[in-house]
Design brief:
The complex is a heterodimer of chains A (209) and B (152). Chain A has helices spanning 16-30, 87-90, 99-108, 149-175, 184-193; strands spanning 37-42, 62-67, 73-76, 81-84, 120-123, 130-133, 138-143, 198-200. With 209 residues, chain A is α/β, with parallel strands linked by helices. Chain A has a domain at 56-200. In chain A, strand 3 (73-76) and strand 4 (81-84) form a beta hairpin. Chain A is elongated and about 100 Å long. Helices cover 28% and strands 20% of the residues of chain B. The mean pLDDT of chain B is 83. Chain B has helices spanning 20-34, 94-103, 107-110, 125-137; strands at 44-45, 55-56, 63-71, 81-84, 87-89, 114-119, 142-146. Chain B is elongated. Chain B is an alpha/beta fold and 152 residues long. Chain B has a domain at 44-145: Nucleotidyltransferase, domain 5. In chain B, strands 1, 3, 4, 5, 6 and 7 form a six-stranded mixed beta sheet that branches. In chain B, strand 6, helix 4 and strand 7 form a beta-alpha-beta unit. Classes of the chains: A alpha/beta (209), B alpha/beta (152).
């Protein structure tokens, strides 16, 4: 019996493209590429004891940002206070000093005023070296029970913007480049130079009494 | 001058499409890998507030969501409701929800767990604060206020 060389019939693959296109379209439609984005915050751990709830902060180290029930904002430190009626004024409309600039002035205390947070010499390592920073400053964001979330986020955003600009300026000054181009270690150095010290206090019912 | 004779109609060479399925498959695999099938039905109406300084949340598997807003179904009223895992829930149920989410993660990831608060911009802060306090009690301290950037 001679072995007959039987030919394997070729598989018709012309419909493969159609099938894979079909699958591709399906996954194109169901996939959602949008990544969630938001303002990251770290909450303080729950109080362990009754008297653990409050932390003593010196008056000069405190910048109070208050959002009331009418969604108006007041920002106050020991030096002065400013009042913003709406979101446009927060950004500096109407000749007011914007909230962002108030926060930056407060965090930097370039004038070494004794009504702004005290400056401490801290070593941050090369190339920043030993620079005076306001290590103990706190930005306290307080809100009323009926404040709208939108106004609250707007205020949070402005405060974060102030810190981001400070970090960008720090990166330009010490590394001659943009903050986003720094390595992870360098970014950590800058973050230590300008740490976000934002406190979110529990709300009080200012409107009710 | 036969050299420039155009009478011999040149045939268009046929394109070789045998590699097309390969290319399509490559794209297909990309979408299969990036897609997230877990499509949880949103039961509350959420119009996120805008913020310019938003950061992207890196790993989706580490993020748990809390949706806060008025119910989609208007028969349920217009009061603020909270949605956890496809159903409405009360604030005190957050602790259980967080414990459950945490249990489904590996031990190394548990510290990196982030809770994304997706709240409607008209929500009263009282509700957000209650949620924040509950999260503190549950030791879910990394949170993110979900917001969209203003250009889109």
């Amino acid at each position: 019996m001679a072995k007959s060389q039987r030919k394997v019939p070729a598989l018709n693959a012309s419909s493969m493209a159609d099938i894979s296109f079909l699958l591709l379209t399906f996954f194109l439609l169901v996939s959602n590429m949008d990544v969630d984005s938001g303002l990251a915050r770290r909450l303080p751990p729950p109080p362990q004891t009754e008297d653990d709830t409050s932390v003593e902060v010196q008056r000069r180290n405190l910048l109070v940002v208050l959002v009331n029930a009418q969604n108006e904002t007041m920002v106050q430190n020991q030096q002065n206070s400013e009042w913003y009626a709406n979101e446009a004024e927060l950004r500096g409309a109407g000749g007011k000093v914007s909230l962002k600039d108030k926060v930056k002035e407060f965090v930097l205390n370039t004038s070494n005023s004794n009504e702004l947070p005290e400056l401490e010499e801290v070593d941050f390592g090369a190339p920043i070296g030993i620079v005076p920073v306001t290590a103990a400053h706190v930005v306290s964001i307080q809100n009323d029970a009926t404040t709208s979330y939108k106004a609250y986020i707007a205020v949070q955003n402005e405060v974060v913007r102030a810190y981001n600009e400070l970090r960008e300026e720090g990166a330009r000054k010490y590394f001659n480049t943009s903050y986003s181009d720094l390595t992870e270690d360098q970014q950590r150095q800058i973050n230590e130079l300008y740490p976000q010290r934002i406190s979110e206090a529990e709300p009080k019912n200012y409107g009710e009494n | 001058m036969g050299k420039f004779n155009k009478s011999g109609a040149r045939e268009m060479p046929e394109m070789n499409t045998s590699s097309m399925p390969d290319i399509v498959f490559a794209i297909l695999f990309f979408f299969m890998v990036t897609t997230t099938m877990r499509s949880e039905e949103v039961l509350v109406r959420i119009k996120l507030p805008t913020a310019s300084e938003v950061q992207k949340l890196e790993k989706k598997s580490l993020v748990s969501y809390i949706n806060i807003g008025a119910p989609m179904d208007t028969r349920l009223g217009t009061g603020t409701q909270m949605q956890l895992n496809d159903r409405f829930a009360q604030v005190f149920e957050i602790q259980d929800y967080i414990a459950q989410e945490r249990a489904s993660m590996s031990e190394a990831d548990q510290q990196l767990m982030t809770v994304s608060i997706k709240a409607d911009e008209d929500t009263r802060m009282q509700y957000i604060t209650d949620v924040k306090q509950a999260l503190r009690q549950a030791y879910a301290l990394k949170i993110s206020y979900s917001a969209r950037s203003p250009e889109n």
